[in-house]
Amino acid sequence: MLKCSRYEKPWLEDPRWTRPKRINSAIMLTGFIIGLVLIFFYLWDGYWVATPIGEQYCLIMDDQFDAIGRDNWSYEIQTGRFGNGEFSWTTDDSQNVFVDAEGLHIVPTLTTDSTDITEAQLLDGYTLNLTTAGSDGTCTSTDVKMCSIKSNVTLGHILPPARSARITTKGKKSIRYGRVEVVAKMPRGDWLWPAIWMMPEDSVYGVWPASGEIDIAETRGNNYTYPRGRNVITSALHWGPDPQHDGYMTTYDTFFFKSNRLDFTDRFFTFGLEWTTDYIFMYVDNRLYRVFDLRFKGKEPFWEKGKFQGTSNSNGQLYTNPWLEAGNPIAPFDQKFYLSLKVAVGAQNGWFYNGKYNKPWVDGSASAARDFWNAKEQWLPTWGEGNDRGMTVKSVKMWQWC
Predict the structure, then answer these.
(1) Rg (the chain; Cα; Å)
(2) What's in the keyword line of the UniProt record (predicted)?
(3) Is the link from the previous residue into 332 a cis peptide, with omega within 30 of 0?
């Protein structure tokens, strides 16, 4: 008869045996807790989207782009620059801004391809005047220098080598707190600059950036080999007493794809803004994926945030706080803002890194536009085919915080 006996198992006392069990248990417990937190956050965030805390949002605009409705949109027509040194002339030409089954398209074209202007005229001896009868559109700028330009080969001045479009809801649809959602697909091509942004309906606190700017989503058409190319979205607030003292460096952030195989030209994304008296944030697709998030409540006013006290302008005059009389700490973001959509070509404000990554022009140079044009054999092949070189917008919704 076999007699059962208990065998000793000394290896069970070895800490090398027990340690993995403890680690595995800790990992499982941590994962369980994280899962519960995420589930709770999704439920809470979904409830918050459906039922805003303490307030109700009223839909004031829902444009699905069966047409470019004049009750919602206006065109900005001028010879370009817009304070950024852009190389594109903005038009209301149906080659540059139009609607089809996909939605709204803002598509850049070469000036020589979409007008009767020849390359020789682009470079010398031609005056483009958007205020004359029969001109392509009527200039909407109050600055006459933005309505006319003459090419001069000796001075290196050329006509805008590209054409594109800007449309805005100024004077038609604006919000003071609320939400905005733009469903769009971004353009593909080197040195293209698409943007979805908001500007103040009235410059209550002074000229830019004293009255603020809200950038919901901006990117570049360059591919992933360019730092912050079309796989990166930037959101920001601009504010300050003058353009040389813009505090945006403390109020911006980015959202990017880690994989080089994905970018914002691949499909339609929802670019959103939510803005109340307590906070402002921008997001991609849903409110969980926040690009930039700033809480106003309990934070220092923008004058203190920018450390502007004691700074002076180029004439040595000390700046005064433009938001002092506002009576609240969130000025200038306490006024009505309207929405703008654009695709610019090039810029001279630092948006494209100067002297790096084969950029063919130098910001501020008198020949910047000409140098850009002369490098077209490098950048033009990178532009997408047809509408892919433009921004396609499927819908725009705006809600006012009631």
Answers:
(1) 27
(2) Hydrolase
(3) yes
Provide the residue count of the chain.
402
Q: How far apart are CA 25 and CA 371, in angstroms?
A: 63
Indicate if 151 and 36 belong to the same structural domain.
no
- CA distances, 246 to each of 106, 315, 356 (Å): 29, 18, 24
The dihedral region occupied by 386, where left means phi > 0, alpha psi between -120 and 50, and beta the remainder, is left
Q: Please tell me whether residues 149 and 40 are part of one structural domain.
A: no
Block mean pLDDT (10 aa), the chain, length 402 = 58 59 66 65 50 71 97 96 94 97 98 97 96 71 92 94 98 98 98 98 97 98 95 98 95 91 95 97 95 93 95 88 94 98 97 95 96 98 97 98 90
CB–CB of 194/93 below 8 Å? no
The amino acid occupying position 233 is I
39 with 155, same domain: the answer is no
Unique residue bearing structure tokens 């439920």: 43
The pLDDT value given to residue 154: 93
- Enter the pTM of the model: 0.87
* Structural domain for 26, as ranges: 21-50
Would you say 271 and 216 are in contact if contact means Cβ atoms under 8 Å apart? yes
**Per-residue pLDDT, 22:** 63
Residue owning tokens 């006509």: 159
Q: Number of folded domains in the chain?
A: 2
Same domain, 30 and 128: no
Residue 194 contacts residue 185 (beta carbons within 8 Å): no
What whole-number distance in Å separates Cα of residue 173 and Cα of residue 201? 9
258 with 388, same domain?
Answer: yes
DSSP states along 42-76: HHHHHHHHHS-TT--EEEEEEE--SS--TTT-EE-
State the DSSP code for 292: E
- Is the C-alpha dihedral spanning 387, 380, 191, 93 positive or negative? negative
Q: Assess whether 165 and 31 both reside in one domain.
A: no
